[in-house]
């Protein structure tokens, strides 16, 4: 059974190519962007301004193919794909938690943007600490490597045709 | 541009109907379940056992239609859809953060399951506190209401044909 989604809008950012793009919002710092929803969805944004962060669900539109073992940006050895956030996945769905700066009509201004300009946006969910914040969670191979996301930038490994 | 995904497997749970189902993992407590991936994806699960939690991206397969203003389970007034986690959305994509108990071959045993049995699974991502834990985030209308998710159960409001 296929699942078919229609983007509700696009994510605008200053990143027009993967090289040099942050690989996580924690590395995106002051990087600004916008969620530009199709006009008809603007009423759904009401009340979202009470939240300081939201969860973006989007489509890695430049991702092609996948391998089940990948060498992530933050490591030097191969890892099982589902233990990574690599964009080449069986379903190329991306997730970023970003800061909400302001909302006007169909546009949400955001901070900490780690996605390519014009990425198709599938959904926005409010970030709720009671549901989503687990600061004590163990994180395997990322235990010592997650901090690298603050400084490491992307390269083109996840869009090359040869699937690294 | 439509986005087409093929489920990588299913989420098994003890919930065969919406009535009485937890509305968030925090209300699901000891509720156990399994991710049953299609066999070919099993190699992608390597290294995931180092993580105590994972993020499930799935399709609300019983959800039909949507409204941009909804009365959430945890409130008594209408809220903008994108400030809620209601399953009736333009793209019926769901997100749950669950505990990983064990992994064997293509099966991940999980705890804190708040989804219907046989829900189509689209992706699994490792939960990484450095990326995903923001305990101080403001959460608007859920500031005083989020705790209700620990005790409130679902009803059928999000699958009824009349779209409440």
Would you mind describing this structure in some detail?
The structure is a homodimer of 164-residue chains. Chain A is mainly β and 164 residues long. The first copy, chain A, has one domain (9-150): YaeB-like (Elongation Factor Tu (Ef-tu), domain 3). Chain A is built from 1 helix and 9 strands; from the N terminus they run βββββββββα. The radius of gyration of chain A is 16 Å and the shape is globular. The mean pLDDT of chain A is 90. The interface between A and B is large, with 68 and 68 residues.
Global structural class of chain A: mainly beta
Multimerization status? homodimer
Largest protein-protein interface: A-B, 68 and 68 residues
- Strands in their spatial order, largest beta sheet of chain A: 2-3-8-7-4-9
Tally of contiguous helical segments of chain A: 1
Helix content of chain A: under 10%
Q: What integer value in Å does the Rg of chain A equal?
A: 16 Å
Layout of helices and strands:
The structure is a homodimer of 164-residue chains.
Chain A: E1 3-5, E2 9-12, E3 32-37, E4 53-59, E5 69-70, E6 79-80, E7 93-104, E8 107-111, E9 119-126, H1 129-132
